[in-house]
Design brief:
Largest sheet: 6 strands, mixed
CATH topology: Conserved Hypothetical Protein Mth637, Chain: A
CATH superfamily: YggU-like
Helix content: 10-25%
Number of helices: 3
Oligomer: single chain
Strand content: 25-35%
CATH class: Alpha Beta
CATH architecture: 2-Layer Sandwich
Structural class: alpha+beta
Shape: globular
Order of helices and strands: HEEEEHEEH
Number of domains: 1
Number of strands: 6
Radius of gyration: 13 Å
Length: 106
Amino acid sequence: MVNTETRTRGIARTYKGGVLVRLRVAPGAKKTSVKGLYGKHAVKLSVAVPPVDGKANAEAERFLADLLDVPPSDVTVTHGSSSRDKSVLVRGEDVKEILGRLEPLL
């Protein structure tokens, strides 16, 4: 088995007091869920809401907070709010901890 750090090297990095996670978001799915890796540099996430009025961003933040077991206020889309490619800051977390929580889903 490939170790977590090698397999997920590009998806998360330490950034401004937390961890920046790269996502590829597909809105309008039947169910919000992680769909694996998108290439080598992002987590593919399907969200069950349309990309209208920031609803897809809010759902991505909510789902990621729940998935990573952190308060919703600690998860914010920082880059790509109007794009499918997003960067989400998870405040107060360690990159190895975040990668460890994501790895079983990838």
